[in-house]
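Same chain as my last thread, 410 residues:
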Amino acid sequence: MFRKLILGVCLLLVLAVPVLAQDEAPVVTVAADGTVVVGLGAALTGEGLAPLGEDIKRGAELALEARPVVKVGDKEFPVRLDTQDDQCAAEGGQAVASRFVADPSIVAVVGPMCSSACRAAAPVFDENGYSSISPSCTAPDLTRSEFTSFNRAVTSDAFQGRVMAEYIYNNLGITRIATVHDGSPYGEGLVNVLSERFAELGGEVVAADAVNVGDTDFRGLLDDFAAQDPELIYFGGFAAEAARLAQQRADAGLDDVIFMGADGIVTDEFIKLSGSAAEGVYASSAIPSGGNADAVNKMLERYREKYGFDPTGPYHTQAYDAFNMILDAVEAVGEVDDAGNLTVDRAKLSEYIRSIEDFQGLSGVLNCDGTGECSAADIGIVQVQNGAFADVALGKPAEDGSIIIEEAGS
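reply #2:
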């Protein structure tokens, strides 16, 4: 009942959002003694999700701590974050977007976190002239959907899926896999890319299925998989479902079958939920690339000092970059009037973000191509060894468009 009430409120918020007229040019106005507000949408609740969203939030908080003001001309304006829970769901993404566009003080948004939330939020942002930069929405079609507001500081799954297909086939020597996803745009898109590339290489997807977020019993699905004798099970989704799949594969006689996921399971929570079944599990995620190792290490030192533990997800650096990309855009296109007020033309802000070149981010050098695609980061491949994720390989693009995979220590 409570969930239905929340969704009803979300729908009312969406219906109440004003849609801009075609000739309307929205402008953010910050009073001379006011504050520049950056929205942030991420999953802050939910089993297997909150560690990812909280990690994104911490990355943005650290960026704000290092850069608490924007300077336009000779005048400085303080900056603050407005953080909302997008629930890693379409309903949550739409509701958070509606809340943000109803607040004219928000200049732009870091987030949402999940591709389902990004897909639902983008039309709302589009209609109201807002810009968003997601640190983690990786579904390939998001930058092919003609959204005007969506940008990302993370590598598309069009690359991550290819890297993992090649690692499975060429490095692990596996030719028979089963795939399962959680029904989300993220999970389904990742599995589709991987499956297509795996087949091109000569591998066979012997079984494929989907589950629902929140499901807990996968024994029937795994029994079906066992009948097809896969060498590896690939899962596109998040930690809660992944952990139960990893555990229950033993019940289907699949103890020796490798389990693999992607960035949605690269959290300590996956290991805790899986117990001993996590040992040997592989996963992948975008990782910092380029020559910024010192800056990344300093940021990680600040993270541990401020929060008292290691990062709980893989996208703190992308959130850090997204926040700074927005502030760069504000400083580039903002104007201060005679009364000391800051005005930011949203159309100019969007144009600036979509044409960013040579941004020296923690996650790598970012260049935005006009579609919202900005990142070309490498893909790190990890494996649970002795109860913790350990680096085992690195996938990166070659100049000719092929993929280079380097084993750790090679």
